[in-house]
Amino acid sequence: MAKRNLYLDTKPVEEAAELYLNALRPVVTIQYETIPVTESLNRVTRHATYAKYSSPLFNASAMDGIAVISERTVAATEVAPVTLKEKEDYIVVDTGDPIHPPYDAVIMAEDLVETKDGVQITASAAPWQHVRPIGEDIVAGEMILPSRHKIRPIDVGVLLSAGITRIEVVKRPRAAIFPTGTEIIEPEDTPREGSIIESNSRMFENMVIEAGGEARRFPPIIDDYEQIRDNIAKAVSEYDMVIVNAGSSAGTEDYTVHVLRELGEVIVHGVAIKPGKPVILAVVEGKPVIGLPGYPVSAYIGFENFVLPVLAMMGQTALKKNEVVTASVSKRLVSSLRHKEYVRVKVGKVGDKMVAAPLARGAGAAMSLVRADGFCVIEQHSEGVEAGEPVQVELYRDKAEVENTVVIIGSHDLILDVAADMMPNLHPGMFVSSTHVGSMGGLMALKRKEAHLAPIHLLDEETGEYNLSYIRRLFGSGKIALIKGVGRTQGILVKKGNPLGIKGIEDLPGCRYVNRQRGAGTRVLFDYKLKQLGIAPEQINGYEREAATHMAVAAAVGSDGADAGMGILSAAKAMDLDFIPVGPEEYDFAVPLEYLELPHIKAFIEILKMDEFYKRLDELGGYTYERAGERILNI
Ligand SMILES: Nc1nc2c(c(=O)[nH]1)N[C@H]1C(S)=C(S)[C@@H](COP(=O)(O)OP(=O)(O)OC[C@H]3O[C@@H](n4cnc5c(N)ncnc54)[C@H](O)[C@@H]3O)O[C@H]1N2
Ligand code: MOO
């Protein structure tokens, strides 16, 4: 058996970063280049820069009007106007024109009365009024920008005004990026089982650029010791830093750490961070070489914690700081004492508090980063946080955007994605975020003031009525409204062509079923139908197997993980499955009255009444919407 690296030594994050930066400081040399000022945005100055010219370069008129000799205007008043003669007493000037002796003041055009002898003025002009003296803005020789200053658009303007056209700046650090792995294919190749589409290096490339560096991405290297070694050795001589992706942990073909031990010094292998544990921090020929884990979230978090500080050091910039807010976490988070954990969260403002809803925690869940508004850290010494406890969240988005987001928690339907897509188009700056925990879970979130709206479809088995009795029971009257949503058909999702010939719920015993979680409206309906038909849950193979959304059920049926599951028509269509209707149901929104008048909540309810929305529901198929957006207040 090939050798495994079983002895990752997991150092606390801060200690690992400090060790590494300390090892790099004596060897990393900062490089400089002189470039045109016009191309210098976001670059960092090497030295202080001094003005070559003054601005203005001469005494200049600040207004359109006439330049006058101020002492000839002294007598002018409302009752005794003075008439000035052109060429003798004044000349016509425009804003920016030079003012030469004997002229020493400017009178604005609107304060002049034209007469046949010249112009009449009714007030005296003070010496130097409306004249911008030489160097009023910039004096030749004065310092415009200090050293180590990041150049902004206004700086470019002022540098040019002061006669500076070229400037010496810190050279952008150049990073070489190597994806590794025999199973890695390029995005344009056709995947086979076992193939992994290469994407991490493209994410790194853009992260390097965003941090002010230059990136050179190389094609994937197969798992071969010599190839990895030769590529790294060559890159180290040509680039300022090298990033190697994957092959960093304990697999039999994880060669990176061995290669780096041969080529240079491995300062750290393994950091107490999750995701992101198998990071390698090495120095080869005085250049930083960083091995990042293959899983995308691990790779991203490793990059933020270890590559960004090195780029900042080489680029002489400060690390960008995200805004931090205190939010209350919407569910219990248990974490190990073995590492510091980064939990991606969706953040919204409900009432006067920020709420953070944790997203999928797996290292492979790249979508958790796409969906995240920020992340919270569970420190290494902490075992986790309880639901409702405050956490510090570092925001990836603007706080204002987060505050203008409709927070929806409850049952899932594809129409939520349609509304989320329409919202920022109709109302720039407003967003919809939805988390799917089932109908009852949504109502509980409303009770805890963690969401604005809860989409629900809960059948009252006694009355056959949907939704109203549940919210009446939970919230009491006068506190909550029901906004009518859509009617939709629940049914059984089966593979295309219905190979098992399933006609209804009565045929499910004997099939492999995938259920929904407790508290989901679909589960309530399924249980109700089973009871009506006299089928015991134990007769359903897979009753205990729970998926969290309609799409997750459809994916399980589509991928041959199950024969049948219950869900909505649009999910069946999206996954190209057959659909056996079971019955209609009402999917509505519960909203506490206190949120009804918020602009973003009103905007969301308006979307439910729009023709464009109905058009998109028709495309999804299976929806009715006669009463969508209607408010039922007397519950
Ligand atoms: N026995 C152990 N197994 C693993 C350990 C461990 O300590 N003991 N650590 C786990 C952890 S934690 C992580 S994180 C991963 C890291 O694995 P590697 O860095 O060695 O990466 P690979 O195994 O080569 O790939 C893993 C996974 O990453 C994705 N990947 C890889 N490269 C790319 C790319 N260029 N673009 C997109 N995605 C990529 C892919 O899904 C791979 O399957 O190891 C655990 N195992
Ligand atoms: O470091 Mo791994 O990313 O924990 O999954």
Automatic annotation (TrEMBL):
MoaB/Mog domain sequence ranges: 176-313
Metabolic or biological pathway: Cofactor biosynthesis; molybdopterin biosynthesis
Record keywords, A-Z: Magnesium, Metal-binding, Molybdenum, Molybdenum cofactor biosynthesis, Transferase
Catalytic activity: adenylyl-molybdopterin + molybdate = Mo-molybdopterin + AMP + H(+)
GO function term, MF aspect, one: molybdopterin molybdotransferase activity
PROSITE patterns on file: MOCF_BIOSYNTHESIS_2 (PS01079)
Record carries keyword Magnesium: yes
UniProt cross-references to SMART domains, sorted A to Z: MoCF_biosynth
Keyword Nucleotide-binding: no
Cross-referenced InterPro entries: MoaB/Mog-like_dom_sf (IPR036425), MoaB/Mog_dom (IPR001453), MoCF_biosynth_CS (IPR008284), MoeA-like (IPR038987), MoeA_C_domain_IV (IPR005111), MoeA_C_domain_IV_sf (IPR036688), MoeA_linker/N (IPR005110), MoeA_linker/N_sf (IPR036135)
Signal peptide interval: none
Pfam families, alphabetized: MoCF_biosynth, MoeA_C, MoeA_N, PBP_like
Cellular component terms (Gene Ontology): cytosol
Segments passing through the bilayer: none
Co-factor requirement: Mg(2+)
This enzyme's EC code(s): 2.10.1.1
Protein name: Molybdopterin molybdenumtransferase
Upper classification of the organism: Bacteria, Bacillati, Bacillota, Clostridia, Peptostreptococcales
